[in-house]
Structure formats: structure tokens, C-alpha cells
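User: Small ask, check this?
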Amino acid sequence: MVTQLALPLPRFEADMASCAQDDFPPERQPRVLDLFAGAGGLSQGFQQAGFEIAGASDIDPDACATFTLNFPDAQAICGDIRVPEVHERIIEAGRGVDVVVGGPPCQAFSQVRNHSRIIDDPRNSLYREFVKTVGEIRPLAFVMENVPGMAQMGVLEQVKEDLELGGAYNVQPNLLDAADFGVPQTRKRLVFVGLRSDLGAVPPPFKGIEATPHLALVRQGKGRYAVETRRDEACAAALLNALDDPDNLTVVTASQAISDLWNLKAGRREEALPIGEMKEAESAYQRLMRKHLEDKVWNVSVPRINSDTVTRLKGIPAGGNHRDLTEALTARYISGEKWGPSTDSGKLGRAHFYAYRRLHPGIWAWTLNTKADSAYHYRMPRALSVREFARLQSFPDHFVFTTDPRRGSLPGRIDGGQAHSRYRQVGNAVPPLLAEEIARRVRGLIHTLREEEGRALAPTPSGKTPASPAVAGS
């Protein structure tokens, strides 16, 4: 992605602008193994950066179905990585890969207060499996992404030490926001980049364009919202100009992401829309998302909506939320139709408030969660389709979300039905554009070290790579 902003390029983007594209022989593109892959956000980004996806694993059969559909040449392993047979299949699929990536759930952070190790907590068994798998495969590099909460005092240091594997890897943590990498959504992630220590280098820290500290949607009064600049005024003004330009990919608004899909109707049941029926692309971002699209775009069904919700949404401006509702619109039931749980007060409860939020067309979306009502359209009184969720996450239009065709309860499946599964798959994913930039950084680091040191770093025919003394025998 080429940055068009008239500002000094951050170190990360400057490095990428000069990174050669032929750093690996055509006959052997760098290969990646994706752990806890979900639908494949990290894999999609790495594939866009020129990596071959060798394999992936996840426990959710619906996410595995999506991954298999979109990466038919990769080996998809569906099952619990903690089961020895599954773990062995993953190790076999990962032999000889250059990079291991993944986002293992890590649930327990409080133990730093009682001096116990994060990796020893039973609740963090999946995180422990990621560290263990990296140690067994010993790739040239790895990428682990996780929630920003892991950056709290004491935790980050423990995680960095765990990932260093006794000196086998040099590790750099980076706190990144997806909106700073051209994703039309603010989504903060803590990303650890590890480089095998025998390569003789430490991954430098990197960052994006830093739009999120300089621009913000501000409530100027009931029913009035506007994008305002902050901090350095010259930088903020340049970023605001970039945000207003539909042909600029540096920073992207919600409308630049989904405006061509505005005519989807609430209650639409059809999952596919022929290209000929799509509106003309209205931004560079939409053209980027449509690239490689063939005859149809999928995942365009839209949830039904009840009349009370429509009435409330009409009373909320773009960018607004429940605070913009009039007193009458805070009644639990407006039309008299009873739906959902009632409240003793006869008013909306706190649990309802998060749902009544409308996107603003002039800035990126807030962090999406796994539910269809986590964001409503800025123009139409309706929820978003899975495709619009995917656009806000930067999944290209040719990427299709599906579910395992088997019905009922399956090992690893989360209850909720097919539609909810697809929203959850999108909401849990790493934005591919963010993943692509991380992948380019990793590829650039490996390429530079290959050139400067001239070492034979490719995996041996046995699939093993040279181990540092710190790892040997571990």
C-alpha cells in the first residue's frame, strides 16, 4: 500500500517503500504457519505480502470451513492444539516454514501481582502452546498478536521473556492501531515480532501513520458530531485532508469503505450480489477491496430489524449513540410490540445502550465486536451485513465467510447459529491490511539479513533450521 500523505514517512513505511519484492527466489516464496487462525485474517495479510500459507490450525469448525474455502492450498487442521495428535499434525504442517504467526487467547493477567508466571497459569494453556510450537518449529521469525491489555505493567516483560525462548529469539513488542495502517476501523493490538537470534539482529519498533492520536470524532452537543484535530496542528491538518480524500488510502473513513453497499435492505436474505448489480466504486479503498472479485460478492444478507429499533435509529444522528435519544425513545417498548427481555423500570437498560450506535461517514469505525448490532449504518436505519463488517476489517471482497455444513453441536463450535458465526469470525479477526504491513516488515527484515550477512538461512532438507546454543536440547 503506497502512502500518499504529504508527511515524513514513519520508519516502518519508509523501510517498506525500499524493500525489494524479489527477496526470495520465485521457486520458493517465504512460507507461514498460522496458529489460532480463525477465519484467516493474518493469513490473508501475509498472502497479500507475498507469503505462501503452508498451514493453519483452529478449534472452531466454522472458522476452519472459512479458512479452507479461502486458502484451498494450505493444510487446515481443525482441532484442539493441546491434544497430542492435533499438535503433532500442526508440527508436521509447519516443518520448514519461515514464519509462525498467531493470536493465542491469553486470559489471565492478574497473576503478576502474586509473582507467578503467566505461562504457568492453566487459563493460559493456549498461549503456552504457541510458545511451545515456536520452540519446536524454530522458524526464522514469528509474529504473535494479542489484546492491548497484555501491555500492562509486568505482563509485557513476562511475555517478551517467554517468547525469547531462553535467548533463541530477539523480540520486539509493538502497540499498533489498525486505523493507522489504512484500515477503516480503530483496533488496537499488541504485536510481538520475534527474529531468530542467530540471524544477528533485533527487530526494530515500528508504527503507522499515527492518525488516531491526531483525529477524533467529538460530540459537540446533543445530535452534533464532528471530526476534530488534536496535538500537532500541521500534522493533524494533513491527516484530515487525507481522510477527506476518497482517492487516498492512507486513512479511510466508514463511508469510503461501505458507501457502495448502502442500498442493501434490512431483512435481505440473499447471500450473493452479482457484480452488475453493485454500485460503482466511490473510493480507492472500494476499488482495492473489489480487486480480484469475479462474478459475485458474497455475505450481503442483512439482519431483520424491529420497528422500535428503526424508530430509535432515526432519532440518532450519524456518529451518535443512546445519549442522543429523546426521553420518549428511551422507553423499553415504543410501538407496544414486546421483544427481548423487559426491564423493571420500563426504560432501556444499560445492557441495551451499547447497541444504539451509528457509524459516522467522515471517520473510521470504532472497534467492531462479534455481534451484528455492534454498529448501525450511518445513513440507513439498519444493521450491517457481514460483507460491510468485512470491509471495515479490510477483508477483500473475494474473501467469503462460511460455516461448517454440519448442523448442531460440534467440538469447538460456539452456539448461536450460522449468521452469528460469520459475524463472530469477522469480529475476531486481525485486519488483513494491518497483517499485510506486519508481513512486509518481517519479509523486509529477513531479506536485509540475507543480503548483509550472506548466510544460508533456508531450512535444511530435514525441515530443521540451525538452533542457537540457548535452544538446543530445550
Notes: Residues 12-22+29-206+431-453 form a domain with the Rossmann fold fold (CATH 3.40.50.150).
